[in-house]
Amino acid sequence: MGNQRSRPCRPSIDVAVLGGGPAGAATAIALCQRGHSAVVIESSGYGNVRVGDTFPPRIRIPLVKLGVWEQFAADRHVPAPGIRSAWGQDDLYDNDFIYSPYGVGWHIDRGRFDSMLARCAEEAGAIVYRQAVLLSCLEDENGNWHIEIAENDRRHHLRAGLVVDATGRSSSFAQKQGIPRIPYDRLIGVIGFATSRTPEKEPSSFTLIEAVESGWWYSTVLPGSRAVAAYMTDSDLYGKAQRLESDYWISQLRRTLHIQPSVSACTLDESNHVVAANTSRLERLTGKNWLAVGDAAMAFDPLSGQGVHKALQSALKAADAIDQRLSGSIEALPDYEAAMTRDFDEYRRTRNSIYGKERRWPEAPFWQRRHPHEVATAFPADP
Ligand SMILES: Cc1cc2nc3c(=O)[nH]c(=O)nc-3n(C[C@H](O)[C@H](O)[C@H](O)COP(=O)(O)OP(=O)(O)OC[C@H]3O[C@@H](n4cnc5c(N)ncnc54)[C@H](O)[C@@H]3O)c2cc1C
Questions:
Q1: Which of 62, 135, 289, 365 has the most neighbouring CB atoms within 10 Å?
Q2: What does each of the 383 residues of the chain score in pLDDT, given as a tens digit?
Q3: Which of 40, 106, 167, 317 to mutate to test ligand 1, by most ligand atoms within 8 A of the CB atom?
Q4: Strands 187-196 and 207-212
Q5: Which residues line ligand 1 (CB under 6 A)?
Q6: What architecture (CATH level 2) is domain 3-81+108-183+281-345?
Q7: What letters, b where the CB count within 10 A reaches 16 and e where it falls short, cover 45-65?
Q8: Which sequence spans correspond to the domains of the chain?
């Protein structure tokens, strides 16, 4: 990417959103609601594995603001009554959602949810390119972006006033602008999906969280008699352990007190999926004519269970900032960055305090790294 001479190309749009996950689709919806034109360029067809399947009750707030609550409710996701945790102690304790003014939480089918939001973006007036490859994105001397994409066998040329990076943790657009990503730890998730052998029996729909010596686990039900069990640990610890024991994930699962029984009536899929789950953020979230939203801007520990909620919130804030920027405000994007940074600092304080509550394994590297006197320093990035 770099500077090139301005050349006429159509169609011209206000904003090009790279990435059509929750943050990207929601940004496009909110921009259309504010009277702007937007395209979404999404690399997948939404059929790939997507993680992040439990939503807290307050997800209702951004979904209502985006005008998609009825479409969400029609999709029949599984109601989630709360979370049961063995954290700081062996026994489970409940954190019920019954006290929430927004009702229950939700176990969702992420592919279905993400493609529903993309459809809503189209209904709001955005163009959504699926299975599209960004070939180039070049800035001209007037600050417009000239974008070339391939969608199936077709090429499209667009000219956009602003670009939104919504490409998730890869933050691929911002990183190509030379903005580094700051990692705060090395957390990964090793995810196993499973299918119930007794679909007629209703499994508990509480999400379970269990801390163990080398990290923590969660398990949850999914729509369609499916379930997920995920082992959260640090990438270096997992790599080392797996070199010594190839069935390490299964052997760790068997040692859990609560997670293993919760999936014992399920058949596990053959392979696991390893995904990055660390706390991280871009060093800068905005430039003169671009900004980042959702995980591309800042990614949260899945323990918070807030990733999609925060992605939608950031999309709404970004749409307001872009709206003001397109009306001439030069403060709008820096103000967005400042507000997002305040949220992130608050989140990090909460995260540190929650990890600080688990004190059963003071000698274990995973927990030593997370105890308050050590967490102020960022971990070095993975090689
Ligand atoms: C193990 C784990 C468990 C989690 N559990 C939960 C949970 O229970 N609840 C919750 O709310 N959150 C959870 N999260 C977090 C949640 O998944 C994310 O916060 C959320 O998906 C962020 O949305 P996003 O749109 O910013 O990014 P993404 O969902 O990552 O979407 C990015 C989109 O961009 C597309 N893309 C990427 N690169 C390009 C490119 N170059 N060009 C075009 N398109 C591109 C991708 O295909 C994708 O559709 C979890 C995360 C992890 C790792």
A1: 62
A2: 444 444 444 448 999 999 999 999 999 999 999 999 999 999 999 988 888 889 999 999 999 999 999 999 999 888 998 999 999 999 999 988 877 888 889 999 999 999 999 999 999 999 999 999 999 999 999 999 999 999 988 999 999 999 999 999 999 999 999 999 999 999 999 999 988 887 666 667 899 999 999 999 999 988 888 889 999 999 999 999 999 998 999 999 999 999 999 888 888 887 889 999 999 999 999 999 999 999 999 999 999 889 999 999 999 999 999 999 999 999 999 999 999 999 999 999 999 999 999 999 999 999 999 996 654 444 444 43
A3: 167
A4: unpaired
A5: 18-24, 41-44, 51-55, 134, 166-168, 170, 172, 189, 230, 275, 277, 294-296, 302, 305-309, 311
A6: 3-Layer(bba) Sandwich (3.50)
A7: ebeeebebbbbbbbbbebbeb
A8: 3-81+108-183+281-345
Question: Of all protein residues, whose CA lies closest to atom 38 belonging to ligand 1?
Answer: 167
One-letter amino acid for residue 203 of the chain: P
Q: Please report the atom of ligand 1 found closest to the CA of residue 41.
A: 43
pTM of the predicted model as reported, rounded to 2 decimal places: 0.93
- Biggest CA-to-CA distance, the chain: 66
